[in-house]
Amino acid sequence: MSSLAHRNNNLDVKITNISIFGIWISIRNKKIFMSYDDFPWFKDRSIRSIINVEDPSEGHLFWPDLEVDLTEESIEHPERFPLKSRY
To answer: What is the pTM of this model?
Structure first.
């Protein structure tokens, strides 16, 4: 098996702050803000479901409790991905 198969996903991504405006996420030591305006499916969700985030592959994040999949690029540049869920 490759070393990638053995990596601990919890070390690569974590939620560092949740505010009334959005969520701060740290991805491989890079901090990114996810506003509720750009990512409405996180608003009014439990802290437990927001902090339960997985990094199944590089550049891809998954929130299993919310059934939300996002790419790192879409988080960093939401303006490039104008289609949004009508949550």
So the answer is: 0.78
